[in-house]
Amino acid sequence: MKRSTAEIRQIFLDFFCSKGHQILDSSSLIPQNDKTLLFTNAGMNQFKELFIKKNKYYTKVATAQRCIRAGGKHNDLENVGYTTRHHTFFEMLGNFSFGDYFKKEAIGYAWELLTNKKWFNIPPDRLWITVYETDYESYNIWLNEIGICPERLIRIGDNGGSLYNSDNFWQMGNTGPCGPCSEIFYDHGKHLSGNPPGGTEINGNRYVEIWNIVFIQFDRQIDGSMVKLPICSVDTGMGLERIAAVLQNVHSNYDIDLFTSLMQYIANIMKISDLNQNSLRVIADHIRSCSFLIADGVVPANEGRGYVLRRIIRRAIRHGNKLGIKEPFFWKLVKPLIEVMDIAGKILQIKKTHIENILKIEEEIFNITLNKGLILLDKKLKKIEGNVVNGKIIFLLYDTFGLPIELIKEICHEKGLEIDDVEFKSELQKQRHRSRTLSNFPQKINNANIYLIPPSIFKGYDKYIIRSVVKAIFVNTKQVEQIENNTEAIVILEETPFYSESGGQIGDTGILKGINTKFIVTDTQKYGQVIGHIGKLICGNLCVGNIIEASIDQTRRNRISANHSATHLLHAALRQVLGKHVSQKGSLVSDKYLRFDFFHAKAVELNLIHEIENIVNDQIRNNLAIKTDLMTINEAKKIGAIAIFIDKYEKYVRVLQIGDFSTELCGGTHVNYTGNIGLFQIIAESSVAAGIRRIEAVTGEQALCQIRLTNKDLYEICQLIKVDKSKLKNKIQSLVNYVALLERKVKNIENQQIMQETKLLLSKAISFKHIKLIVNLFKNIELNILRRILMNLKNQIQSGVIVLAVILDKKTHLLVAVSKNLTDNINACELVKMLAHQINGTGGGCSTIAEAKSDVIHALPEVLATIEGWVKSRL
């Protein structure tokens, strides 16, 4: 009996549950505490640290992890819909061992699940295995204990002879945890083309990798040498969609039940019967990635994760457009997606309305943008000379208006035009840097040794000064034993009162003191489970093992704590005033101000801002007690705690309660009573992206300073315009009206000047061979007015050449216009460059309009005198 995708997912989890694994939920698509990744792209992402050191909570787990591959290093976007296996969103089934079992058990589990009749029941002779060439242990397990046929057991060596550079040797990075892997392939049958794994020729669709088992046993050093890890781990990954294709006896992932159901729904909307269309596959894939990304807090934007989401949405809408849909449709697919995703779609059901609203807004915006882009494209193409379209124009339409390159090429092809692909790709390469901004986030420590240091113990919730021991020092990513005076470094302590940047709260600053030693801490960051004190030694030497006194800047910390507690009050007040849909999208808590980003569809009106301020200040005056407790996540949920970010492998969470007003999960520092905040004032409310608003606020002394600054500005404005404060608004309105009147008068004067100058120049035009030539040097005229005169003349002369010049701010400006009927012989761009060359200037433009400028002003009359002869020579 054919199993559904939902059943396959559950069978996998049930199998590993029966083997003693803890079954954990999928983590967010937004990696937590890992700035090296744009999106979660593998099951192991949330467990990175557990591969390196033992933990007391988990030794073996299994997950069905939601993954995205549509930005940064792992980007399948352009292939999606055109191959049988590429997706922007997929689920990675994985089992993991952190120092528990290793190769024998991992291989045995995989084989049992795949081939046993109780589980997947795949014929063993359809499975091929690859191992790393020198991983003899895995090879022998497959050959002797599993009994795989030697012809289907393939050793894979290093690519190009470069040691450990192999498809069967996995590495987290240039340094750090790594190890050999064993891949399992499924043979879909002779009716498909393709070669067995390990060959040099490109494989077709016959042999498909379905499972990768990685054995993490080495720590790669900077010099390339391999050191055995103290604990060995297992990391496996099997794409749910790929194994579903195998078990449902289809060779394309898009033919599994999950996708066919979605595509049938899309086809019904579009009233089409042929499901075998690339555009249907694109839309079905993209609704999954877009819905889950929005559910996890991403919104369309012009950079980073939001930029990737926006491109996926627009690609889907364009493919709907290709299928004939002109009205918003994409948001309507959220409901059927929830149905086909079964239990994995639980988060979508919770946030269904929010997802639909974001998609609908973005779709409406893009439809307007798409129409504008198509109009602009049509205008640009009408001006094209020759049959090649400038690559920069194409990129403008692609990047600013979101027109898919396929659409632009298609329209150009219809008009017999080609695009400058080289120039377009050059511009595209520059733009791609934006979407990788987050994935290229710099790390201050890139050394696997950091993970071997015992976890730092944070004492800073109730202590500002403690004595501690220096456990490690890093300089320029290298671990050292000591540092000399005037050296910048990162110092790791056994215990510390310094709070490391986390949850939006900035890191502490302060001093590390020893005997004749002083290290100034300018920032504090967390690296795995250790806290790094970033700064500079300004006195003496500092060695590993030294006992020092660590003290934070208490005044700065107090201001940060006040702002953090105020952020929680603000969050609760927003939910009270605007609705329970409000949830945190991001925050910044510094010593100077706080910034809070949240989900809300429209701007917060001024009267609501005042209401929110009043509620927060009421709670400050109530002087509510702020307390924290450690409890399990289930206990926290029972008391209604709002969770923003949770690491999946943490057993206990820290719950912050502010009286009965606010209950949230939070690891930051706070004041003891709300009265310590003093005063709260919102200083800005703005839009971050579609559906995301931002509030900035200040507290305490900063709020008082803000009020005084506002009053000072008002006083100075009143003094400047000589009016009493009570009459200020009416006076400003009167001035605004007067300025508008003056601007209208100035515009009328400019229009009269342009008409007069145009009429005068037309009367002075030189005529020969049925054309008119106008050449004039102006004095004291603005450049924008000169351009308007040029266009007026061009529009009134059916056949002619116009050259206008002016000297402004010791620079020569030349403007040239040529009637379109003359451009075969006289080119405006060529003429302006000829003139500019004579005065060491630069210029450019097109065949009908061009400009140039130069620092040379004395030779201008002589240069203008050469124009008539040049024009006549071209006729």
Automatic annotation (TrEMBL):
SMART domains per the UniProt record, alphabetical: tRNA_SAD
GO biological process, one term: negative regulation of DNA-templated transcription
Subcellular location, record wording: Cytoplasm
Cited InterPro entries: aa-tRNA-synth_II/BPL/LPL (IPR045864), Ala-tRNA-lgiase_IIc (IPR002318), Ala-tRNA-ligase_IIc_anticod-bd (IPR018162), Ala-tRNA-synth_IIc_core (IPR018165), Ala-tRNA-synth_IIc_N (IPR018164), Ala-tRNA_ligase (IPR050058), Ala_tRNA_ligase_euk/bac (IPR023033), DHHA1_dom (IPR003156)
Binding, Zn(2+): H564, H568, C666, H670
Cofactor note: Binds 1 zinc ion per subunit.
One Pfam family linked to the record: tRNA-synt_2c
GO cellular component: cytosol
Assembly notes: Homotetramer.
Domain comment (free text): Consists of three domains; the N-terminal catalytic domain, the editing domain and the C-terminal C-Ala domain. The editing domain removes incorrectly charged amino acids, while the C-Ala domain, along with tRNA(Ala), serves as a bridge to cooperatively bring together the editing and aminoacylation centers thus stimulating deacylation of misacylated tRNAs.
Name of this protein: Alanine--tRNA ligase
Classification lineage: Bacteria, Pseudomonadati, Pseudomonadota, Gammaproteobacteria, Enterobacterales
